[in-house]
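Bench notes, afternoon.
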Amino acid sequence: MSVPRLGSPSSLDEASPARVIAAVLEGCLDVAAAAKLLKKSVRQVYRMLAAARSDKGRTFEHGNIGREPPNKIPRQTWDEIIRLARETYSDLNDAQLYDVLKRHHYKVGRESLRKQLRSAGIPTKRPQSRKVR
């Protein structure tokens, strides 16, 4: 069976799974050709067809869409850290602040801390160079 065009002038290699499966369901494309287009096995295409028949709409979305990561640090914690960085520990650089926060049992990464501080408008504290006479 020949492989039909699936819409716009984009190449068939970039065909979306939803369009390819829809073409199989309409009878325009056979399972073997769909497997080749999607770079999947025939068995996987049959699984995708079964999912498309039973679950209309959300078939090809990732299961974690709409969920927050379990390791996400709450906004309230970041607000507290930024307040500490502005008021109590304003003279510390990023590495020193990271060490102090670790001692106070805040579990944040160094790079995450740096990003949050910069986005809050807190500049980096660089050591002053000594003037040589």
